[in-house]
């Protein structure tokens, strides 16, 4: 697979970019070099390789869920800017 100048022009049009002729040639060469490098990966034998999402073996460290009592409303409202009918009242952020 290779990229042509027409492909670069099409993508530039979609991105609403104005490219000079020298930029079109440069991007065409660069994109083709990237595709050639990616095609080298097809030469590798990955038949017995397990798919991974990360190169290192990572696991999430999570605590068990446990129910706890909530803070009393007096403590919650103590740090709130304003309280109205049992709700925290804050300044409007949308007009």
Automatic annotation (TrEMBL):
Biased composition (Basic and acidic residues): 72-81
SUPFAM superfamilies from the UniProt entry: Glu-tRNAGln amidotransferase C subunit
Xref: HAMAP family: GatC (MF_00122)
Catalytic activity: L-aspartyl-tRNA(Asn) + L-glutamine + ATP + H2O = L-asparaginyl-tRNA(Asn) + L-glutamate + ADP + phosphate + 2 H(+); L-glutamyl-tRNA(Gln) + L-glutamine + ATP + H2O = L-glutaminyl-tRNA(Gln) + L-glutamate + ADP + phosphate + H(+)
Family: Belongs to the GatC family.
Keywords: ATP-binding, Ligase, Nucleotide-binding, Protein biosynthesis
Organism per entry: Chengkuizengella axinellae
Subunit and interaction comment: Heterotrimer of A, B and C subunits.
Presence of keyword Protein transport: no
Segment forming the signal sequence: none
InterPro entries named among the record's database cross-references: Asp/Glu-ADT_sf_sub_c, GatC
Keyword Lipid metabolism: no
Gene: gatC
Name of the protein in question: Aspartyl/glutamyl-tRNA(Asn/Gln) amidotransferase subunit C
Name of one Pfam family that matches: GatC
First-tier enzyme category under EC: ligase
Function comment: Allows the formation of correctly charged Asn-tRNA(Asn) or Gln-tRNA(Gln) through the transamidation of misacylated Asp-tRNA(Asn) or Glu-tRNA(Gln) in organisms which lack either or both of asparaginyl-tRNA or glutaminyl-tRNA synthetases. The reaction takes place in the presence of glutamine and ATP through an activated phospho-Asp-tRNA(Asn) or phospho-Glu-tRNA(Gln).
Stretches for region Disordered: 72-95
EC number: 6.3.5.-
PANTHER family: GLUTAMYL-TRNA(GLN) AMIDOTRANSFERASE SUBUNIT C, MITOCHONDRIAL
